[in-house]
Amino acid sequence: MTDRTGREIDYLRVSVTDRCNLRCVYCMPAQGVEAVPYDQLLTLEEIARICAAAARLGISRVKLTGGEPLVRKGCPRLVGMLKAIPGIREVTMTTNGVLLPRLLPQLTAAGLDAVNISLDTLDPARFEALTRSPMEGSVREAIDQALAAGLRVKVNCVATEEYNGEDLAELAGLARERRLDVRFIELMPIGLGRSLTPVSNDQVKARLEAVYGPMAPYRGRRRGNGPAVYWELPGFAGKVGFISAISHEFCGSCNRVRLTSTGFLKLCLHYRDGVPLRELAREGAGEEALAEVIRQAILQKPLHHDFGGCQAPNLERHTMAQIGG
After folding, report:
1. Does this model's pTM top 0.90?
2. Given this model, what pLDDT does residue 141 score?
3. 5-9 long-range Cβ contacts below 8 angstroms, 24+ apart
């Protein structure tokens, strides 16, 4: 469907849990956050029903997120449930990769189409400082195993001066020999991210070109569901992407809404605006009724974020783990 400005909304990001097995400094405090009681999380069946209702409106692509989605039992089964929904053409996942190798056979058998793996540095010491966990080797193993399993793979990096400003070119180098995309995501001033120094994607691009030479815009077929802009580097098997929500706002072409793990349909990452769906689902609302509530909500989708300094009372105050990455 289209919203009130004519943007086609065809992409739903679904958080299956607020829990995570890492403690990345821009996402969570060292002690974590108070987890939502399990009975307040959507069941897998409730997630599938809401996604089926959304598919009636033209949602054709679903990405599973968290927290860390793979700490939620039953993720492979959920992938299969979503792939069976008429109208859902693609089911993908964003993960930190730690648990991915163990679950890859089940996920691919269920029909997972692609995976985004978060990795902000290849330096083991900086990885441990950033994530508060010594699992860098496991994440790199996950990348290689996902490629070997035939999945489309993207590596996501959030660039900050404090933790990986020196490592960005090395990280981009993962795409030199591997057919994967390395994408740099500008740090958004949400939750704990406000305390760090972002590296804009224009700065990232300049640092990469200083090492690898001039980048050329990628002119091939679409490479994903979202707003990433892709570039090519000489001799690279994969591409480099930039998601520049701050420096190059892309709200005018935004095609997504989010479903939190507790069943709140969130219309924009920056604002608390949205509609709760969990109780409707638990009270027995059918797909048609759920679809109408979703449709009315999407018509109220904000025109754009204002990460530049808006102090509106409805600004989002949760961490990214609680919202859904």
Report:
1. yes
2. 96
3. 5/252, 5/303, 7/252, 7/253, 7/254, 7/255, 7/301, 8/58, 8/255, 9/57, 9/58, 9/59, 9/255, 9/256, 9/257, 9/298, 9/301
